[in-house]
């Protein structure tokens, strides 16, 4: 039987599962966000609406009041047609989430350490934050005019409304797959993450932290994979991938 819920929380998350970040260890609200996201992903690997909302207790202040992660600020995109990669049903920007706000990859792709597939986040994961974070209030990178600023903020808020509509309508987005290998090739993500670490995603996927729209960087062909194994002195036995 679970212990009583914390009545002050924004979700029905058991009090024993929610560990606040010690205030003395962090200097910014964003540091607290990253601490909680990392702890939650390491604790169980499960990312649901309750956990996401617990994270968002700290998130809105960083995302909506201007206290973003130091350094990189995602720029305003005035022409999405010029971006590399396929346009997705929702314009999800990795350069904002993973780059500017520094949300760990494992917070959304929670099964990558235990499964062959990285896992596409459920809508409840997105909605867990975006029922509060409505978009259009983050600090923009670069120099923009007042008209561009207004248009960009309206467009960003419109994309967030798509997330909310998907949740209320119980219809998840039909994402377009970007990275894939032939059916006769097996690429177990958990094995590669175990060796390369949780920051090893960029080896195959490129640095998505600077991508407004994700596109394929590596060829993912046999020669490319074998070359990676040679560089890291890993077995090239055929049965590693073809079984």
For the structure shown, list the relevant keywords.
243 residues; 39% helix; disordered N terminus
Task: Kindly describe this structure.
The structure is a single chain. By secondary structure, the chain is an all-alpha fold. It has a domain at about 15-180. The chain has ten helices and no strands. Helix 6 crosses helix 7 (about 145-170). It is elongated and about 55 Å long.
What share of the residues lie within helices? 25-40%
Report Rg. 19 Å
Low-confidence stretches: 1-69
| Overall geometry | elongated
Mean pLDDT: 78
Major sheet size, sense and barrel closure: none
Q: Secondary-structure element sequence?
A: HHHHHHHHHH
How many strands appear in the DSSP assignment? Answer: 0
Structural class: mainly alpha
What's the helix count? 10
Bin the strand percentage. Answer: under 5%
What separation lies between the terminal Cα atoms?
44 Å
């Amino acid at each position: 039987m679970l212990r009583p819920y914390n009545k002050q929380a924004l979700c029905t998350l058991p009090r024993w599962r929610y560990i606040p970040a010690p205030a003395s260890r962090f200097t910014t609200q964003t540091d607290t966000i990253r601490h909680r996201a990392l702890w939650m992903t390491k604790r169980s690997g499960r990312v649901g609406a309750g956990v996401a909302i617990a994270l968002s207790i700290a998130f809105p202040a960083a995302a909506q009041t201007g206290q973003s992660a130091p350094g990189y600020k995602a720029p305003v995109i005035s022409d999405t047609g010029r971006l590399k990669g396929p346009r997705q049903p929702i314009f999800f920007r990795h350069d904002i989430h993973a780059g500017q706000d520094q949300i760990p990859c494992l917070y959304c792709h929670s099964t990558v350490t235990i499964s062959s597939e990285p896992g596409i986040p459920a809508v409840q994961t997105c909605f867990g934050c975006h029922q509060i974070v409505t978009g259009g209030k983050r600090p923009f990178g670069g120099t923009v005019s007042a008209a561009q600023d207004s248009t960009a903020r309206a467009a960003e808020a419109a994309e967030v409304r798509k997330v909310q509509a998907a949740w209320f309508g119980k219809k998840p987005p039909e994402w377009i797959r970007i990275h894939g290998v032939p059916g006769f090739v097996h690429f177990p993500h958990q094995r590669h993450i175990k060796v390369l670490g949780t920051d090893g995603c960029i080896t195959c996927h490129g640095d998505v932290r600077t991508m407004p729209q994700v596109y394929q960087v590596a060829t993912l062909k046999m020669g490319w994979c074998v070359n990676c194994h040679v560089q890291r002195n890993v077995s090239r036995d055929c049965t590693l991938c073809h079984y």
